[in-house]
Amino acid sequence: MGKKTKKDKKVKGAEKTAAKMEKKVSKRSKREEEDLEALIAEFQSLDAKKTQVVETVCTPPSARLNATLSAHPEKDELILFGGEYFNGKKTYLYNDLFFYNIKKNTWVKSDIPNPPPRRCAHQAVVVPQGGGQLWVFGGEFASPDGEQFYHYKDLWVLHLSTLTWEQIRVSGAPSGRSGHRMVLCKRQLLIFGGFHESARDYIYYNDIHAFNLDTFTWSRLTPSGSGPSPRSACQMTPVPDGSGVLIYGGYSKLKAKKDVDKGTIHSDMHLLKREGKDELMKWTWSRVTPSGVKPAPRSGFSLAVGPGGRALLFGGVCDEEDEETLEGDFFNDLYLYDTNKNRWFPAQLKGHRSDKKKRRRGAKGEGEVIPPSTKVEESEEEEDEEEEEEEEGGAAAALVEPCPRSNAMATVRNGKLFLYGGMFEVGDRQVTLNDLYALDLHKMDVWEVLVEMDPKAQEWLEESESEEDEEEEDEKAAAEGDGEEEGSEEDGDDTEDEAEHPPVKPGEDLAAFQSRTEQYWVGLARANMGPDAKEKKVAKVGLAMAKVFYEEQA
Biased-composition ranges for Basic and acidic residues (predicted)? Predict the structure, then answer.
């Protein structure tokens, strides 16, 4: 054996530290995740009542962030799944599914039996086979107070031709996580990074896993070379020839002095490249140094892949942290990365031009995105004409653009970039959005407003507001959401659940209630967790469900 270098020892030391931290996080978060499993199982029991597909033409989905927006592989439709919403006091998680018809500008909500549990910060990838498939992996579920988290490691596929959900139960999956990235690379789903968080600890990942769509098997890749440091919410883009993926940016945090979390915004780029086939296949990391005008450091940006192998990056936030405050600078700029030229450049929108002006400047490519270094200079006469057009309102449309935001959902279909939702902050208030914009990536002229922001959706409950106000908001959400939100279903189905579950007898304590009704709750947990779940875990979840119900009734 060759002698280990100082660098090898450093890498091994970092791996051991990461392994110890993961074990520590896993132990501390096990108890709280078991409590959340009971809540998740309760919601799944509600979903289990769906026995057939129901498609309903509806208004645009409610405000949310950290959902997934995907382009249908065979139809002019977008697919929105999951996400989260916070109103200042309560966190709502979703597992609703919407289809947006691009030509008709209409939304359809599809209620499908046995969907994945509610989640956010997951990943979804469309695969063009069998009428189209939507693959979903991981994500997180949060308690209503936002203090506890459950991280999924499940894999689901939505068969778009039959509108059926299927959970793929195979061993070897990555550990539970959210904020990871997943892309289609040839016939594999590649998953990189993410994080796992409990009430007291967290860990960020830089491992990479592959799921083979032909053999339905997981494998953990062990690339050579120096790869990205652990992070979440990065940009992951397949290279045009399908030989690998590019990783850019992301976010991570560490415990600093005085036990204060210190966040790090990454702005490095790495290439993971595949060489060889089958048993001889090897993966290698290498550092990439792109040219051009790079985006300012940020996290929470939206990403998509455009025509010609161009990666798109929109918005995001740069947090300024000190020991007492955290303030964010939000963006609404758009950058393009040309994977063939290894070059960043900012997108410059042209705005509407008059027909006369288009004819006169016919030699200048109408749909071309012009980097600053190659921008055509205009004469004084042309500038005067532009000013006249602006006075006539010609530039008004160019000013219509999405407001600065982070954690929005983005995808590309038929050469158009679509952007939905997200959030920004005003002081201590979080504003969650439900608007939809489109930008023609060939013309690069103006943003088109498809769904305007609904001012009524901008509720925010201050800490000083009374419990009575909160109850009124919950009742309103239940009436308007028709069971979409976590709190809505909880409130709207109370009467039905009370009639179905064994009642708490007067004066009965928790231990006595659990002992008397144990068989019922374990049976309910088994029905929701499936036949493959271990008896010990099913029993724990059953008792936790009994505890949740008992405390609700007490």
Answer: 11-24
